[in-house]
Specification:
Largest sheet: 9 strands, mixed
Bound molecules: adenosine-5'-diphosphate-glucose
Oligomer: single chain
Helix content: 40-55%
Strand content: 15-25%
Number of strands: 30
């Protein structure tokens, strides 16, 4: 059984006499997934494309009849559509993943909506996952679905495919939520990309941003004790359907007997390089006046994301540029650019492909670009020239195209000239190589191969659900082998365990305990747990004997062959007790004092924000002002010994806050005195 999860169900909504109904929207992906869903039995989960308010106003939504595939709508309110889809998906992820960093917005409200909606999608598919369905999640709108689904159904068989580019690590890390998104994707068994470069970027991010162990050669990321397969599966088109639609169209007349056609077909989107392309067409007509009256450039645009402001602005800019160029070059009976903004059904679009002498496909960045493959497929006479941007994923496979840099207006103009004047045998040789390649790997092959790989990755992931111990040791083993002795120092709170509200709630996970035990058994490794807790406390919390424990920031050390107390601390116990009394007397809501023998900790984490200033502000000896207003002060204050300069070394050893009152600070000035830490 298969469950497909995508942002949109494959429908478009129509209103008849106030009633809303859905009709199936055609497309290569739908055509490829439909038969597989029917064969395997399945469900398609997605947003039906109409906000809930409109559905309610229309008294419900009539779903298309169940024709072997069950469509499960995920309801979204108008606000969610605006924040999750128009906002985080299309104003944050879409521009950033296409390297338009300047257009990227960073808004935590849209991020939260994105999280909520992704969780809802996961809940909608959880039942199928529980019943053993292979879940296939599509695209950038749903990067967190694998994460939420894995939490609901740990045994889920789960694959993800990204249709758009995955950017280089230095661009991806710009996102404040980059790590969460990576974890979201890494909850899958298989993560698929269009071309090798995107997969490499993803592996680098997993390694650099999450510290995962990555096997590049095998395309494996080890994350949270699981093996995730990272693969390349370039999407393709339904070649048979396109060829059938191209066949009835009359073959083009010989070039000498007709005008020449250059064609552009795109979704209206700033990533498609439309302005740059128009400027290249202008440069071509500027440089080659002999082609005036003989060459027509037709640009077909499908409107998209009309509610996102940038898109209507883009449409206005294109209108202006087309008008200006036509005004500049038009002659009686001829205008250089024909321009249509409408969606054509495939039976009208494919003949246009077939007639075109040249296709100009020049996106500034594109995951794959299906137009390039559709154009190639429709060239039944193996004629026609494809000019293709090197920034499109399709350029990896379609090397016989004239490959251009879409930002280089002169280069694109020259490519148009070269394409129009290319000798027939060269045209045919290039095109037949391109067609063979696309036909050998059409969209049906893509679906089948991806599903096979997904099923295999899920099997492999189950077989190798390695314990985290194995993963850690596999990673460390070669490194350890080269060293005589290694001391591994680890903190407890926030390192071996997550930070929690109350210290006693910081329980060590069983898997982490196993890692420590395994490390302890490794011949040349010593493990030392260093903590601000008392040594007895940290030893009890970890519960692994044979380790060395350092408590109270170093005042106490216990382990094999060592039992140490910093000498003379008794002198300071009275001062410490009175500091504790004073702090407790402050009676600040949420603040509390933890007595740890030779140190105490003043906990401010639960103090209401408005009171934190009072609870945590003081001045250090050098007059700098330290405040605890950032919410989670994790300061450790210590006063110990004499520095090499002969002056006393006193100071914050971590985040740089001081004890709450100067008087108290002064009291712990003596050599090797007790410490107060604020947390
Ligand atoms: P898109 O960004 O939508 O897809 P693309 O791959 O070019 O880009 O697909 C566009 C589709 O729209 C084509 O199938 C084309 O035929 C159709 N189309 C364009 N203009 C049309 C018109 N006027 N009338 C009718 N149809 C029109 C995302 C990624 C791509 C990736 C695909 C698939 O951005 O990089 O190739 O997904 O994975």
């Amino acid at each position: 059984m298969l469950a497909v999860v995508s942002n949109r169900l494959p429908f478009s909504a129509e209103r008849h006499h106030g009633e809303l109904s859905l009709t199936r929207s055609p497309g290569g992906l739908v055509a490829a997934l439909d038969p597989v869903l029917r064969r395997l039995g399945g469900v398609w989960v997605g947003w039906p494309g109409v906000p809930e308010e409109d559905v309610e106003a229309a008294g419900g939504l009539t779903m298309p009849p169940d024709d072997g595939v069950c469509y499960r709508p995920v309801p979204l309110s108008a606000r969610e559509v605006s924040q999750y889809y128009g906002g985080f998906s299309n104003r944050t992820l879409w521009p950033l993943f296409h390297y338009f960093v300047g257009r990227t917005t960073f808004d935590s409200a849209t991020w939260r909506a994105y999280e909520r909606v992704n969780e809802r999608f996961a809940v909608a598919v959880a039942e199928e996952a529980r019943r053993g369905a292979l879940v296939w999640v599509h695209d950038y709108h749903l990067l967190l679905v694998p994460y939420f689904l894995r939490r609901l159904v740990p045994q889920a068989r789960l694959a993800f495919f990204l249709h758009i580019p995955f950017p280089a690590a230095d661009v991806f890390r710009v996102l404040p939520w980059s790590r969460s998104l990576l974890r979201g994707m890494l909850a899958s068994d298989l993560v698929g990309f269009q071309v090798p470069a995107y997969a490499q970027h993803f592996l680098t991010c997993a390694e650099r941003l999450l510290g995962c162990e990555v096997d590049r050669a095998a395309g494996i990321v080890r994350s949270e004790g699981r093996e995730v397969s990272v693969q390349v599966h370039p999407i393709s088109v339904d070649t048979k359907a396109i060829e059938e639609r191209a066949r009835p169209a009359a073959p083009p007349l010989p070039q000498q007997e007709r005008g020449l056609e250059v064609l552009g077909v795109d979704r209206l989107d700033y990533t498609k390089g439309l302005q740059e392309r128009l400027l290249a067409v202008e440069r071509f007509f500027e440089r080659y006046p002999a082609y005036h009256g003989r060459v027509q450039f037709t640009q077909l645009l499908v409107p998209s994301r009309e509610r996102v402001a940038e898109y209507s602005q883009l449409k206005r800019e294109i209108d202006e540029t087309v008008g200006r160029i036509n005004g500049r070059f038009s002659e009686a009976g001829w205008a250089p650019i024909r321009y249509f903004v409408r969606s054509l059904p495939p039976e009208e679009l494919v003949p246009l492909y077939r007639q075109a002498d040249v296709a100009l496909v020049t996106p500034l960045r594109d995951g794959m670009n299906l137009v390039a493959k559709e154009y190639v497929t429709a060239q039944l006479e193996n004629d026609g020239v494809l000019i293709l941007s090197e920034m499109a994923g399709a350029a990896e496979e379609l090397q016989e195209a004239l490959i251009v840099n879409p930002f280089d207006v002169d280069m694109v103009a020259e490519a148009v000239h070269r394409a129009l004047s290319m000798p027939e045998d060269e045209r045919r040789a290039r095109m037949s190589a391109l067609r063979d390649r696309v036909r050998a790997h059409d969209v049906h092959a893509w679906v089948n191969r991806f599903l096979e790989a997904a099923a295999a990755a899920a099997r492999q992931a189950r077989a190798s659900t390695a314990s985290p111990t194995d993963a850690v040791l596999r990673r460390l083993a070669p490194w350890l082998a080269q060293r005589p002795t290694v001391a591994l120092f680890v903190d407890y709170d926030g390192t071996l365990t997550p930070l929690v509200a109350r210290p006693q709630e910081a329980r060590l996970a069983e898997a982490t305990r196993q890692v420590l035990e395994q490390a302890l058994r490794t011949p040349n490794v010593d493990v030392v747990v260093v903590s601000g807790r008392s040594v007895a406390d940290v030893r009890d919390m970890v519960g692994v004997s044979g380790l060395t424990y350092v408590g109270n920031h170093g005042f106490e050390i216990e382990g094999p062959g060592i039992s140490y107390r910093y000498p003379g601390t008794e002198r300071f116990l009275a001062a410490l007790a009175s500091a504790a009394t004073e702090l407790e007397a402050l009676a600040i809501e949420g603040a509390w004092v933890e007595h740890k023998g030779v140190t105490l900790t003043y906990h401010l984490r639960a103090v209401p924000r408005a009171l934190r200033e009072r609870a945590g502000t003081t001045r250090s000896r050098d007059g700098r002002r330290w405040t605890g207003t950032r919410g989670t002060p994790s300061c450790t204050w210590w006063c110990a010994g004499t520095g090499s300069s002969g002056r006393r070394a006193c100071g914050p050893c971590t985040s740089g806050t001081t004890p709450p009152m100067r008087t108290r600070f002064a009291r712990c000035q003596g050599s090797g005195g007790p410490s107060v830490s604020r947390r």
